[in-house]
Design a protein that fits this description.
This protein is α+β, with helices and mostly antiparallel strands and 185 residues long. The protein has helices at 14-28, 101-105, 114-131, 143-153, 176-179, and strands at 67-75, 79-88, 91-100, 138-140. It has five helices and four strands, in the order αβββααβαα. β2 (79-88) and β3 form a beta hairpin.
Length: 185
């Protein structure tokens, strides 16, 4: 339906306007803007990946990375045990990592760092097991591993805009002549 014209101007219908816009695009050399697809029209080519997203493919060269999730913890008589679960493809393994209570009470480790320390331990064990598979799933962190974590995660001191003023060196010994003022005439 053509729009009403003011002052004798000729107005175009929507179809005429779309045809003119498409001709201008062709003349300007922008072919990627020429085709306009309706989103409801079925596409002749399938969209998305060519493989199933839900089933593992034998010939697939994609790398499947393991995921590790924190499940929880339990406090025992001498250890705090953290439970983690790893998913590697269709394989699921349960891990238990213990941290001695003495590490917490001595201030070497904070309670909130426990899950991350255990996650890193399981990650290291999984990487080591990729070379030589080991069925071990229960671990206890050593003092050396806890010390390595603390040194790696201790922030470096920040420099502020104000620097500490170093003390002045002591003044040299003065003589009597230094204390005399010049005489004015």
């Amino acid at each position: 339906m053509p729009l009403q014209a003011e002052r004798g101007e000729k107005l175009w219908s929507q179809d005429q306007y779309a045809d003119r816009r498409q001709r201008r695009r062709l003349e300007s050399g922008c072919p990627h803007e020429v085709e306009q697809h309706d989103t409801m029209d079925p596409s002749p080519e399938p969209r998305g990946p060519r493989w199933s997203l839900h089933e593992p493919n034998e010939g697939d060269l994609r790398v499947i990375k393991p995921t590790i999730e924190y499940v929880g913890f339990r406090t025992g008589p001498d250890h705090r045990q953290y439970f983690l679960r790893s998913h590697f493809g269709t394989e699921i393994r349960e891990y238990t990592v213990g941290i001695p209570h003495s590490a917490f009470t001595a201030g070497r480790v904070r309670f909130q760092d426990g899950p991350e320390i255990c996650y890193l331990k399981v990650l290291r064990e999984m990487e080591a097991a990729s070379a030589a598979p080991s069925p071990a799933t229960d671990f206890t962190l050593t003092d050396a591993e806890l010390a390595a974590y603390v040194t790696a995660h201790t922030p470096t001191p920040r420099r502020t805009s104000f620097s500490v003023v170093s003390p002045r060196p002591p003044a040299p010994e003065s003589t009597e002549q230094d204390h005399k003022l010049p005489h004015r005439s």
